[in-house]
Amino acid sequence: MVSPLNETIKPGLTTFSLSSLLCLSNNGVIVQSVSMNFGSLGVLSINPNQTGTINIPNEGILNFIATVTYTNGQQFINKSRIIVSSSGSNNRVAGADPETEPCFSEVVSSTILFQGYDEPQAYKGINTVNYYYRNGVSCNKTKQTINKPIIVVDGFDPTNKRLAEKIRTEAFFFVNQNGNPDNLGTILRAQGYDIIIVNHPDYTEGTRTIQTPNGPQTIDRLIHGGGDYIERNAMVLVKIIQDINAQLPLGSTEKIVIVGPSMGGQISRIALKYMENNNINHNCRLWVSFDSPHKGSVLPIGLQGMAKAFSALFYKADALLRDQINSPAAKQELIHHHLSNSELPAGAPGFFDRYYNYINTLGWPQNLRKIAGNSGAHNGAQQNPGFTCNNALHIHSDAGALTIITDIFGVPTVSDAYVKLSPSKSQVCCNTAYIKMLYKGEELINFTQFAQNNSTIYNQSLEMLPGGFYPGFKEITDSLKSTDQVIFNSKIDEISWKRRKKGKYPDVTKAFDNHTHIPIASALGYGLGPSPNPNRKWDDNVSQLNLAIPCEGEIPFDGYFGPLTFNTLHDSLFNDQALWLLDEINAIPRSFKKQRTVIIQADQNNPLLCAGQTRVFYIPNAPAGMTYTWSTSHAFLEIISGQGTSTVTIKHNGPASYQGSIYSISCQASGDCYIINNITPFDIYVGIQPVQGWYNSPYNPSEPLNPSAPLEFNWNDACFGQYINTNMSVWPGTTVTWQDAGNSGGITWWQNGNNITFYFSDPNAYAYFSVTTTNACGSNTVVYRFRAVSDGDCGGPPLRMSIAPNPANDKTEIFLYESNDKNRKKEIFEIRVLDKLGNVIRKIKYGKGTTSITLDVSELKTDVYLITVFDGIKWTSGKFIKQ
């Protein structure tokens, strides 16, 4: 058979080469030439170890007829095909070529070789460097002078489908605040920046030995740069950074900016730190790590298991496993890799641990500002909640246990494939992949995979953690309808392709499209800062923290920005994040201070302070690196120690007999770490508590209780026939005791905690109560006098008495009125004047129609009197002072 080694190529001039090492035969014949008939495009003939070029202008599936001629004159003819797509590659077995879309493109090789973990020797790396010059500079495929360079290092792309133009249009894309598509790269170029995109192409470097029917053969060694060892690409970047700096105008003081999305963040981190360690000037002022896996990345182990199970029979699964999942970079980064053969999350043996031990030992670049963008929710919101150990993907065609997807000569081929997310910690273990396939009664696949979770650093499923997501499940289901395939691993593979061509697809039940790819903990490097928090979990809510600030130092970055309450597509920008990055590139760093809400607490939770005592007040979990300024609301409260810190000691300097009050202690905070506003003042209960309370009077459901002072007549009116309840002010640590101090009878009462409930059954009843408040500072006692009335809400509108003038020495006018309306006067039938001892010293009756009287008080002694007025229904009282 004849088949191209590259499944997909780009439109344009395409060069085919025929290596004699790839001309394999099991009958001893030798290939003389291969002729490929492309129809209207022409015929291309190639001899072994030669090349030929043909122009293929259009995209699509290109069919051709290949004729192999042997040296003995025999020929072999077969049909073949190749996919022509702008995302393809024309350099599968040749050196990398410059790209065509940028203003200028060049190929750069590293001068520092790197030996991979499983390689026999060190090899150089190759990247393409693609220039998009600032506005106003010619874009004509020639090299121009750069002014303000921003280097963007591409990430994981082992099939090289993402070329510079796609990176430029997609990596910088965002939707602006007006809801319109926008591009950060376009904005930066308009501001005078040169965008330089570093891509990792396919190329050949060195040789390798393969086993053939004719014995061992040596062939060119193909490197998929986008999935190659991260360190090798980093060594290429070292050379690129040096080249870019050399292009700056003579005398320029401009420094470069490096943006590393995804794996590009790993490549640039290593390159910059390598240069610092080897005294190579990188001249970089800002390094942006964007959703880069500093602690590893995630591809659901169930999806890996499905690719592994199908790889022997299906070419696309084989290519996914070989070129992507088993690529060096994926083996370096994936937290749980199928090659570990472990139910617990474990990386590829000899790759994951080795890589992360290396970069953690290497450390972080220091001579620049380093910031991180991330795509995961800071509040800990997980992906697809509720689906751990449940079906994320089920490929089937009916509800039965087995799925009929083809029918060949009346003999069914049946298949069933389940993929589930790995378990949360509470679930411990579950089945993450189950694949079974029968063909003509023969069992071709019977694959089962399990996963466990005993993590101490996250509680949710590894594949549901907050972080940048990737549509892995969508890609799998989309591929089930794809007809872009020219290479088949088996008869079943080809039959399935033919059915897809006819629009016959397997049925799919898909719970969701996305899974976690870069956990926020990995993108921000939880625990890799100068002050790691050993209790930090990967699914914690950190929205109220700033992990980058010097006061916390949990992560190694000087600043970071990401979504607070939602997860976004891995490596994508949203509006606020794009504006943050724009400010940072323009050397306008955002304040990394975060709002914090704090409270003041008292030592032993005791806010009472007696004369001469001290008490400690503090802010629990106070942020460090702050200056705390304390103040009190009264001179009796002296701050004797701790001013400027989060803990102070207060002393009560007032007299021991001081009748208490509620004062407060306040605090303000400032510093480099947080913005702390509106710290609520803390109430301090100072001294002996005064007696104070309220009750449901006829006029007010919360009437202040009026104590009976010596030589004064202060009554508290209480509705006859209703339950009266008091509501006393009680400080922490204070008790209130009520005692009967005399009554007229006709009253029932009882104490409820610090309050009483009573009931007047006699309309003329009265009662005196002695009330004592007691705390650690001493006691206070007052007397409350209650009398039964029918005023106010007891029945009818409440009455008020006007006595004016008051005080008076000759005459005073007295009248009653309803509520607060003095124009609504009530009739007066009797008036009594009582002295302070309650003795009636004057009593006057009036006829119907009297609404106002003038009382002669000239003969009364200078003193305080009580005047009571009867309106024919109830008595109303008021205090009068004789001068």
Topology (SSEs and partners):
Blueprint: E1 8-9, E2 12-18, E3 31-37, E4 43-46, E5 50-56, E6 60-70, E7 75-84, E8 104-109, E9 126-132, E10 148-153, H1 164-171, E11 173-175, E12 181-183, H2 184-190, E13 193-199, E14 202-212, E15 215-224, H3 230-247, E16 256-261, H4 263-277, E17 284-290, H5 301-310, H6 315-325, H7 328-333, H8 352-362, E18 369-373, E19 391-396, E20 403-408, E21 411-420, E22 429-439, E23 442-452, E24 467-470, H9 472-479, H10 491-501, E25 507-510, E26 515-519, H11 520-524, E27 559-561, H12 575-585, E28 594-595, E29 601-602, E30 608-609, E31 614-618, E32 626-632, E33 637-641, E34 647-652, E35 661-671, E36 674-675, E37 682-686, E38 693-695, E39 703-704, E40 716-719, E41 723-728, E42 735-743, E43 747-752, E44 755-760, E45 766-775, E46 778-789, E47 799-804, E48 811-818, E49 821-826, E50 830-834, E51 840-845, E52 853-856, E53 863-870, E54 875-882
Helix pairs in contact: 3-4, 5-6
Brief rundown of the structure:
This protein is 14% helix and 38% strand. The protein is built from twelve helices and 54 strands. It has an eight-stranded mixed sheet with strand order 8-9-13-10-16-17-18-27, with helices on both faces. Strands 19, 20, 21, 22, 23 and 25 form a six-stranded antiparallel sheet that branches.
